[in-house]
Hints:
The chain is of the alpha/beta class. The chain has helices spanning about 1-10, 15-30, 40-50, 60-65, 80-90, 120-125, 130-140, 185-190; strands at about 55-60, 70-75, 90-95, 95-105, 110-115, 145, 160-165, 165-175, 180-185, 195.
Amino acid sequence: MGILRYAAKSCHPLAAGLQAAILSSILMASAMADSSNRPQKETELKALILFQIPMLVTWDIKIARRAKEFRFCILQDPHLAAILAKQVAGERHQGRRMTVSLYEELTLDKECRIFYVAHDSAFFENDVDRVSALFDQMNDQGTLIVGSAADLLEKGGHINLQTYRNRIRLSVNRAATKNRHFKMSLRLERIGALRN
Length: 196
């Protein structure tokens, strides 16, 4: 993982192809044959994928300038938050220090650039209207919504990381590619299965 971590540091536009190749390789290599270690490996891979995603998304210049830091907000997954925090320690994206915050509830935070929703977040199934309303507000403020909940894309999320047949699959919400506050690289769209 050292090579992947080193390659992930570059934010230069010419590195986008390399970033896409790395992300694609991570997804292809994500088969989790060892069932005893599967949850740990899956969490580590999702953290690594989350770390790669910002290199393949361009945020509106006003949002980039306004931000004090590049914050990953993780909902109800302390294990993922801890692993990701180690990966981003000392790293910067577009001049902003990368940080990780853990949330117990779905909260609107203007500092979140990427908001991750864990697959087992109970509220996600129980309060559909509130989730949809908050996702709309997050869209309006330029927050990229990533997660592993089964119907994340249908509720307005942007990128879903679901495990299927022991492999992590990345799906991209087609409507999300038209967000006025950020633009996903076409490479990211090609890696993931586009969903309407």
